[in-house]
Fold Pantothenate synthetase.
Amino acid sequence: MDILRTPEALRKILDEHKLNTIGYVPTMGYFHEGHLSLMDRASAENDIAVASIFVNPLQFGPGEDFEKYPRDEERDAALAEKAGIDYLFIPSVQSMYPHEMRVSLSMNKRTDILCGASRPGHFDGVVTVLAKLFNIVRPDHVYMGLKDAQQFAVVQSFCEDLNFPLELIGVPTVREADGLAKSSRNVFLTEKEREEAPAIYRALIAGEQLSKDPSINTKEVTEQVKQLITKNTSGTIDYVECLSYPDLIAKEEPRGKMILATAVKFSGARLIDNVIFDV
């Protein structure tokens, strides 16, 4: 596996593989099994597998955890190589943003709900860096985890609207044995919070089952999930929403393809999770 640190160096190498299919996994690093499952797919389903590590400052707001976001480049490189990655792209902020951006991208759908409601500009930062990365890597297939289902829905519409010539592939959430979604931020949970955190997923599953009752409405579903999370964790609920997916539109009754999603704040970490299902 080769490690490249500038867009020019990666582009030069990938230009030699124009006749090969390229699978790409964009990440912010500190790999866990969720990331590795994406890399396994990219490696198995393409001639060339590329992953990137870039903690993108544009998607962090004031007071968010950009500086303390966990980083371990040496460990990540070893894991990426083991997962079959051919080229690992680790650019600096300076190489990705050599000057102040003269172009701004703004998403106006699927962003004012869930995490986007409390993080204005977050998804504008996400699509800006992805536009740059997609133009550098020029992948055939891009693999993203469905743990952040809103991000996947936003990126899906972004790629469709701007006609990026790639296939975006959503990979199911990888979980611990007790159901907790794998996340780089799990390391910031206290021992007690780590014991409580699996209750989030159990509450979502209970809400999914409740949604199958034809007499139920979405407000009743979300209230039940909130009660279960509040009863079984010390975290503070940021939101619980039951929406259509991938459009992320509120409905009075759960019908069709739905997402039940939540964000819960603990002392040192904000955890997100969701279940996507059909009613």
Summary: Residues 12 and 136 are 10 Å apart (CA to CA).
